[in-house]
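Next up, a chain.

===
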Amino acid sequence: MAEKMKLEIVTPYSKVVDMEVDEVTATGKLGEFGVLPGHAPFLTSLKIGELVYKNNGNSEHMALNWGYFEIRDDKIIVLVETAERSDEIDLERARAALGRAEEKLKLLTPEDKQFKIYEAALERAVIRVQVAGKAPRK
């Protein structure tokens, strides 16, 4: 059994992560899951949520925006719309987005065309605020 796994996180704009890791946890459509070296192959879709990878005792937290997660032969490929490390997130901007989404949702009903858009915006903002709170202190 391998001791490490290769992790690649790719957005439409760049390869965000390309490194060896000890462990990965992510938020799938059916809930949170974890992967260790030697894991059986699988493919799943990801929802807006947090991904954490650990390497040599250090954890890195990331906010992800929809995508796919595949592991095969100790290689993980994560394809997502966006991926932000905790220390890259502008907390004030995330809080402002959270407030805007909450205000819009108060004015809409679930039948409104814009409801799902603002519901997703709210979910993204909540995750970004949570993940930003896990950034290492400077």
